[in-house]
Design brief:
about 70 residues; alpha+beta; two-stranded antiparallel sheet; 1 helix; 2 strands; elongated
Amino acid sequence: SNYTYGWLKATMTIGGSQSLTLNSYGYNDTLNAAATAGGSSAVPDSGPGVVGLALLGAGAAGMRLLRKLRAGK
């Protein structure tokens, strides 16, 4: 399979005023080439695999927590 890779840096604030701020992002539109953060050296990536699934699960858990906090439970 062919993939394009990217990255993002975000800040999430939970408390009196919940917010999600996108600080920076980047991508590499070359197929199957690593995206670099900060422009220094490439970090090898083996594709979405287990790490991608773990990050997806962490994001889902974060969204559940955010919804729970907004509902006041």
